[in-house]
């Protein structure tokens, strides 16, 4: 798998992967999320390519205090090949190159299998409650 920063031309393939992986929600337009990440100075979306096909993604951001990972996705027919692990290593490298010393991510409570994936990579459950407010 080749990993590179996403480009605007990747929009349809990236958002289709996010939708197929069950990562999208009606209140978040995935195309807008992608565009915002690509336009930001402290964010990007990495894509993993098999030939020219997008098979994995990770959205990254540096908020000046911590690094964040969103939209880690692997195509269903590529699961079990270690691509998620490769994408997380690339995400950590991208953040590390910017001086980030701690990476955080959020996983929905109902997604126990994904929690296990991250725990196997050395991530720990953090005793934090996430609060939100719609603007």
Describe this protein's structure.
The protein has a 5-stranded mixed sheet, with helices on both faces. The longest helix is centred in the middle third of the chain and has 14 residues, at 83-96. Strand 2 (43-50) and strand 3 form a beta hairpin. With 135 residues, the protein is α+β, with helices and mostly antiparallel strands. It contains 4 helices and 5 strands.
Q: Order of helices and strands, N to C? A: EHHEEEHEH
- Return the structural class: alpha+beta
Shape: globular
With strands numbered from the N-terminus, the spatial order across the biggest sheet is 1-2-3-4-5
Flag low-confidence runs. none
Descriptors for this entry?
single chain, 135 residues, alpha+beta, five-stranded mixed beta sheet, 24% strand
Protein topology:
Elements: E1 2-5, H1 11-20, H2 30-39, E2 43-50, E3 53-62, E4 67-74, H3 83-96, E5 103-105, H4 112-120
Parallel strand pairs: 4-5
Antiparallel strand pairs: 1-2, 2-3, 3-4
Brief rundown of the structure:
The protein is of the alpha+beta class and 135 residues long. It has 4 helices and 5 strands, in the order E-H-H-E-E-E-H-E-H.
């Amino acid at each position: 798998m080749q990993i590179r920063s996403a480009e605007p031309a990747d929009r349809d393939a990236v958002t289709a992967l996010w939708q197929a992986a069950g990562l999208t929600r009606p209140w978040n337009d995935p195309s807008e999320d992608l565009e915002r990440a690509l336009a930001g100075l402290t964010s990007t979306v990495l894509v993993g390519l098999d030939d020219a096909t997008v098979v994995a993604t990770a959205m990254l951001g540096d908020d000046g205090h911590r690094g964040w990972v969103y939209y880690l996705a692997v195509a269903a027919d590529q699961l079990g090949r270690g691509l998620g692990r490769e994408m997380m290593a690339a995400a950590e490298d991208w953040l590390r190159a910017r001086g980030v010393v701690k990476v955080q991510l959020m996983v929905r409570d109902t997604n126990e299998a994904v929690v296990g994936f991250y725990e196997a990579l050395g991530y720990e459950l953090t005793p934090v409650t996430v609060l939100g407010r719609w603007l």
